[in-house]
Design a protein that fits this description.
single chain, alpha/beta, 8-stranded mixed β-sheet, 6-stranded mixed beta barrel, 25 helices, 29 strands, 31% helix
């Protein structure tokens, strides 16, 4: 058996052993690991279907005509020749900055996520800045604490209550959820609908986009009832008196009405939150809106008021030197970056002529994918994709290289939830090349001689681990190691900042005018706010093609069904200025009135559409250019 770490873009980052026998993979979760705790989620249990799928690509592919979906197999040497010819032509005619490397967290292995940067840094190519996930909340927390790195589960010692704010951990953080259940934590859920997590626990239902109003309501109750640690707060913060004055401007009734929460429920929650010194795990989804990023900051104040520093779970970083893997020292020009969600705009502006994509499926997961597809075709961008499958993105690529699953290569992983670093060993010989292998072959084909382009995996990891004071031998021997990195406030003042020096530099108000604050409201009577949420059996677009479990319907409230004269199962077109999709209606009284819910990132080549044909591709510039998927509005029309 070999040691494995799940490399999916997931909080839990599970540790297990893998046995490959008789053409099948068997998994044995680590029982002693405090987070994995001896079990895998549904997706984890079915990884064998994904890794050993008959749909796996086995040879490089050349598309006969762009967008035709017709490919021919290529020998590797021919594929390398075509790759080099196209890349050289773009660099010669337009310059290396027109070459864009688009990657994300399709695999979180440190080598195979970041080593490709070295080859493209040698070429002086352009990279993406990630803004489709948590960049807005990241900025918001840095404004307050100087860092977005908060608690890991095992750091929680004096609390007895956890709030899951804007997330459904039964589907997205199951191991973390069970960790707190095993410790008998009181569990509260704040969300726009009663999810699988909310159903058996305490639940606060809010109107979409009104998180900041609920946060202010709870803060006002805590302060008004003296349910906070005043001496602790004053000692460890700046601007608290001004914050008190700010919330004093709003009545309880005003804040409760705005977020749609009964005051007695809010008061009961605030009391329990104080008595049990509550912590908050903030999800990433709700911040993907105009209102979301600043809301994160105000939510993060709540656990601080009751004596927790930090009191939020959001991100984790144990200090591994990932920049070492990227090799920016290989450049001879200053690096250029393009925001991930603004790829279509960059192509329209002739900033991209050659696009290399790995660890990502942007033709499914980027917002407003119709615009992106049109830009690629109209501007004649040469697209190369490295993937295991013929994804929606691969189907629009000129050249496709087959990739390996993480069971077919060595790597090391950390987590953005807990403090463990683990080793992932090669389990079997499969097909294609890993990202690490492909980049070494590119460098060899180009005749490059820089040793950084051919550094061994052990050499890379040895350097990556140094800041955490872990040796490669220690990690290989034990399989996984916990890195104790204490929390550190990193604001200019060294304190929690209600009045933030970072916000001042970006001209962001510390205390926004709520009447002008961009919050949810129906644009007109025929419009619904579309929330596209994570589907429990996929991780973004991953596993859709292998598990084949989808929920394509649009969920609407009974009031809206009456308003639009719709019944259960009616076929409808869902449309806005970005596009149109066809689906069926499911009437669900857990959905807020004026809102519609659909699951995100299904492949159009399988499901017939992806909801990202409709999503808003605008950004919140002052908060990390956060993409605003959930500030999307649509109309419905019954099909004849």
């Amino acid at each position: 058996m070999k040691r494995s770490v799940c490399a999916r873009d997931c909080y839990d980052t599970c540790f297990f052993k893998t046995l490959y026998e008789g053409g099948y993979l068997s998994f044995f979760p680590e029982k002693e690991h405090p987070i994995t705790a001896g079990f895998l989620c549904y997706k984890g249990m079915h990884m064998s279907k994904w890794a050993l799928s008959e749909e796996r690509l086995k040879y490089p592919l050349l598309q006969v005509k762009k967008g035709s979906g017709q490919f021919q197999n290529l020998p590797w040497d021919s594929a390398f020749s075509i790759f080099k010819s196209a890349l050289d032509n773009v660099i010669k005619e337009y310059g290396p900055e027109k070459v864009l490397v688009f990657e994300f967290a399709g695999t979180r292995g440190i080598i195979n996520r970041f080593f490709p940067y070295r080859f493209f840094n040698k070429l002086n190519a352009t990279f993406v800045r990630h803004n489709v996930c948590d960049s807005g909340g990241d900025e918001a927390l840095k404004d307050v604490y100087g860092t977005s790195v908060g608690l890991s589960p095992e750091d929680v010692s004096n609390s007895e209550l956890i709030v899951y704010w804007g997330m459904n951990p039964v589907k997205t953080n199951l191991h973390g959820y069970n960790y707190f259940r095993r410790r008998n934590f009181e569990i509260w859920v704040v969300d726009i609908r009663k999810s699988e997590t909310a159903a058996p626990n305490f639940f606060i239902k809010i109107r979409p986009g009104t998180d900041i109003f609920l946060a202010l309501l709870i803060a006002k109750i805590l302060i008004d009832r003296k349910w906070y640690l005043e001496e602790f707060v004053l000692k460890n913060s700046i601007g608290f008196e001004e914050f008190k004055q700010y919330i004093g401007r709003f009545s309880f009734d005003y804040l409760a009405e705005k977020c749609g929460v009964d005051f007695s429920l809010a008061e009961n929650f605030a009391r329990r939150f104080f008595e049990k010194r509550g912590i908050i795990h903030m999800g990433y989804g709700f911040q993907r809106s105009y209102e979301g990023p600043l809301s994160v900051a105000f939510i993060s104040y709540l656990p601080f008021l009751v004596g927790n520093l930090p009191g939020f779970i959001y991100n984790m970083d144990v200090g591994l030197d990932k920049d070492y893997v990227k090799g920016f020292n290989l450049r001879t020009r200053e690096p250029k970056f393009i925001y991930q969600s603004q790829l279509a705009e960059a192509i329209e502006n002739d900033e991209v002529k050659f696009l290399f994509i790995y660890n990502a499926n942007p033709l499914t997961t980027n917002p407003n994918v119709n615009r992106l597809k049109k830009a690629i075709v109209d501007k004649g961008v040469f697209v190369v994709t490295h993937d295991l499958f013929l994804t929606d993105t691969a189907m629009l690529s000129d050249l496709v290289f087959p990739a390996k699953s993480f069971f077919e290569y060595f790597d090391v992983l950390d987590s953005y939830y807990h403090k463990y670093v683990g080793i992932n060993e090669k389990v079997f010989d499969g097909w294609g090349m890993s990202n690490y292998e492909l980049m070494r072959e590119f460098a060899r084909y180009y005749g490059f001689i820089e040793p950084e382009l051919f550094e061994s995996e052990e050499g890379i990891i040895t350097n990556v681990l140094k800041p955490a004071r872990i040796t490669f031998e220690e990690l290989r021997r034990s399989g996984y190691v916990k890195v104790d990195r204490p929390f550190e406030i990193m604001t200019p003042s060294g304190k929690v900042e209600f009045i933030s020096q970072r916000r001042k530099l970006r001209k962001v108000p510390d205390f926004p005018d709520l009447d002008e604050f961009k919050v949810w409201d129906k644009v007109d009577k025929d419009t619904l706010r579309l929330i596209s949420v994570t589907y429990g059996n996929t991780i973004s677009s991953q596993y859709h093609n292998t598990l084949r479990k989808v929920e394509k319907r649009i969920f609407i409230n009974p009031e809206d069904a009456v308003k639009f004269d719709l019944e259960e199962g009616d076929e409808v077109s869902v449309f806005n200025e970005n596009g149109q999709i066809f689906t069926t209606v499911h009437i669900d009284d857990t959905v807020p009135p004026g809102c519609a819910i659909m699951y995100k990132a299904f492949w159009k080549t399988i499901a017939g559409f992806t909801v990202n044909e409709l999503t808003n591709d605008d950004v919140v510039e002052k908060f990390g250019y956060q993409a605003v998927y959930h500030s999307t509005y649509v109309k419905l029309k019954k099909r004849p």
